[in-house]
Design goal:
Helix content: 10-25%
Mean pLDDT: 85
Number of strands: 10
Organism: Spirosoma rhododendri
Order of helices and strands: EEHEEEEEEHHEEH
Oligomer: single chain
Largest sheet: 6 strands, mixed
Strand content: 35-45%
Structural class: alpha+beta
Protein name: DUF177 domain-containing protein
Shape: flat
Number of domains: 2
Length: 184
């Protein structure tokens, strides 16, 4: 049996009101999707489906952990996932993705499968830079400083700077010429 069948919701028989669903996604879920971004994980999804005459509003609350490979050390680690996303499915004459949050579905659609949405929202919740937690504090410090010097500082130089020993350096004549043009 296809593990993604558990994510089918029969919308043809639903009343026009609010419905709630809970899904547990494990390793079989990620393997069935035929992708290489996530191979293992344990994720819970609480879905609120609000059906009306013209559309279906899907509100996802996804939490859990997925196994990732550190970009720096290639060690495996568990990345926590916590996200809330919304999707609108509007009834129309054909199937079409209008934007990231809005899709058209045919009026006679009887079943929707939410597995693809859950996986996409998990992928969006993952950080672009996959670092093992032991490297994250170290990486934050390196973002602020390079070799002990501040990379960029706005405003006037403070008294602590080493560069205050030299008098104001001569301005490059090319920049001076540009300033004169700007002042005219």
């Amino acid at each position: 049996m296809n593990p993604l069948r558990a994510y089918d919701i029969n919308i043809a028989g639903l009343d026009n009101k609010r419905h709630e669903y809970d899904f547990e996604s494990g390793d079989a879920f990620f393997a069935a999707l035929d992708q290489s971004l996530i191979e293992k994980g344990n994720v819970r999804t609480h879905l609120v489906l609000d059906k009306s005459e013209t559309m279906i509003r899907l509100e996802f609350h996804i939490s859990g952990v997925v196994e990732q490979t550190c970009d720096r050390s290639l060690d495996l680690y568990d990345e926590p996932i916590e996200t809330q996303q919304m999707m609108l499915l509007k009834f129309g004459d054909h199937n079409e993705e209008l934007s990231d949050e809005i899709e058209l579905i045919e009026r006679n659609t009887s079943t929707i499968n939410v597995a693809r949405y859950i996986f996409e929202f998990i992928g969006l919740a993952l950080p672009m830079k996959r670092l093992h937690p032991r490297f994250r504090d170290e990486d934050d410090e390196q973002d602020d400083e390079v070799n002990g010097k501040l990379v960029y500082q706005s405003g006037t130089p403070s008294d602590d700077d080493d560069d205050t020993d030299t008098p104001n350096e001569a301005i490059d004549p090319r920049w001076e010429a540009l300033r004169k043009l700007n002042n005219n």
